[in-house]
Amino acid sequence: MSTLDLIDIQKSYGIVTAIEPLSLSVANGELVCLLGPSGSGKSTLLRMIGGFETPTAGKVLIDGVDVAFDPPEKRPTAMVFQSHALWQHMTVFENIAFGLKLRGFGKAEIKRKVEAGLSLVGLQDYGQRRPSQLSGGQRQRVAIARCIVLEPKILLMDEPFASLDQHLRDRLREEVRQIQKTLGITTIFVTHGQDEALSVADRIVVMSMGRIEQVGTPGDIYASPATPFVAGFIGDMNLIPVTVAHGRITMGGIELAAPVADGPAMLAVRPEDIAFAESDASTGGATVLRIVNYGSYFKVTVALESMEWKVQAPKSTRIPEGAVLPLSIGRYQLFRDEQVVFRSEPA
């Protein structure tokens, strides 16, 4: 069993607070993504887990043992960095073997472990090459193998694919997910890419300004964001200021149930939960401003009561720019004072 528990962990630099006190538990074999924009504190939190930053307060428990003030080499963790951090004067084999030598393994055991690591990342025939002879994706595979052969209890990954092109990123994250499942290793993965987090994580920790905004499965985070920040950061979301009156929201021909107190609120609707209805001059409608072809669907920008909305329309849709059409809304939710006050039932 390899579990991670952060208890009231905090990090300050003088009077500047980088991480507000937070707690998080990660189960054995779980892959958890720390997701947030630049400056949200996700990499600082990862570095405190790995020992590269010392917390101002709190505990870092790995299998129940507090390692908060142990140096990196004394922790049962290994980190894959964005920059690969390979030694250019060493071969691939020597790079992967370096940490094993420091730990006192014999030559035969080192050879066995390195070859197994190379096989796991699909580089069986690359042991005698130099890093300069490898592609970016291959260098990152070497960095992953170098960590895996140490058999850490916790694998840490700090935006490992950020420098790679989109196609290679997609392929490598699928490979890393498969390796992680095969080994059953508890993994913390930092990214600012929502697609990356949604595709690989068992759970996502959404961070902002050194705080945890929400923790949940990718499906829960996407379907039921807990705050306006999460709603706007994960996927496309229409965030529209509205006024609730007598338990209803009425605007531009749209009428929605809103069983909350009267007053201002924030309406949140995914583009895929909006559809164009049959034209009806009596109900008004939204004016089509722009249509962008995304291959499998159209992203349509419309104007409704001076607000722009995004609508995801099927490829069969035939709508000219400038058309005025009513909208129908399926699933939606309301925020007030940064909290969810109402979620509609799934359509």
UniProtKB/TrEMBL annotation:
It holds the Pfam family TOBE_2. Residues 4-234 form the ABC transporter domain. The keyword Disulfide bond does not apply. Coiled coil: none annotated. Transmembrane segments: none annotated. One of its GO terms (molecular function) is ATP binding. It comes from the Bacteria. PROSITE patterns: ABC_TRANSPORTER_1, ABC_TRANSPORTER_2. Keywords: ATP-binding, Nucleotide-binding, Transport. SUPFAM superfamilies: MOP-like, P-loop containing nucleoside triphosphate hydrolases. Belongs to the ABC transporter superfamily. This is Spermidine/putrescine transport system ATP-binding protein. It comes from Rhizobium paknamense.
